[in-house]
Amino acid sequence: MKRLGITQRVENIHSYNERRDCLDQRWTALTFHLGYFPVPLPNIAIEQVPFLFSSLQLDGILFSGGNSIVSLDSSADDLAPERDLFEKAILNEAIKRNIPIIGICRGMQLINVELGGYLTPISGHVAEDHFIKHIEKRPMPERVNSYHNWTIPQDGLATKLTPIALDLEGNVEAFECIGKNLLGVMWHPERENPFNPLDIELIKKYLP
Fold first, then answer.
1. DSSP assignment of 13-56, as one string?
2. Using the 8-state DSSP alphabet, how is residue 176 labeled?
3. Per DSSP, which regions of 50-153 are E strands?
4. Active site (annotated) includes residue 188
5. Based on CB atoms within 10 Å of each CB, which residue in 42, 88, 139, 186 is the most buried?
6. Would you give the DSSP letter of residue 126?
């Protein structure tokens, strides 16, 4: 079975005085639905990233949600600068090695920022469903969940990326990279119960 590396959020567990890498168990179920074996990736030092790739022989990388990005809001209470550094390093290494990349919510945001785009704050998109408009013919739901406080305006999208779906205000809800197996979506497919077959079909299009 092919292996999908999944990045993890960082949580401070004050009662145990621990700083943990963690992953929602729903990602495990969704990954098996995609036909992959999930490999949670620890937020290691960036100099260890090439060794991670050569050791694990991953067939794809998925950037999961959670944690605010430091460069967007340095005052947020859920910052994880070590995760930012690790994910930027793993993104660039995956691009160099031509390994497929999926970005979900924060993951989509980080990819856009690292490739030269920018984000703006948005309200009314936390724990709310909303409609999206497809601008490229891809298998996607018409109504999606939403758990983000930052959005990508169309002029904030990195030049290497192409929008494939917008929200009703014209912000980017999904993008791809022409010539690369790279997909970003702002919604959370792992939080649907049951999983939406259109989400499964969409992600599979970008994985080997």
1. EGGGTEEEEE--HHHHHHHHHTTEEEEEEP---GGGHHHHHHHH
2. E
3. 60-63, 101-104, 120-121, 130-134, 143-144, 150-151
4. yes
5. 186
6. B
Of residues 87, 125, 176, 188, which has the active-site annotation?
188
CB contact at 8 A, 9 and 64:
yes
Alpha-carbon span 165 to 141, nearest angstrom: 10
Residue of 87, 105, 173, 176 with catalytic role? 105
Question: Quick one: which of 132, 122, 144 has its CA closest to 190?
Answer: 144
Place of tokens 């739901």: 141
Catalytic residue among 87, 176, 190, 192: 190
- Considering the entire predicted model, what is its pTM? 0.96
Helix (H, G, I), strand (E, B) or coil at 200: helix
Please report, in tens digits, the pLDDT of each residue of the chain (208 residues total): 999 999 999 999 999 999 999 999 999 999 999 999 999 999 999 999 999 999 999 999 999 999 999 999 999 999 999 999 999 999 999 999 999 999 999 999 999 999 999 999 988 778 999 999 999 999 999 999 999 889 999 999 999 999 999 999 999 999 999 889 999 999 999 999 999 999 999 999 999 9
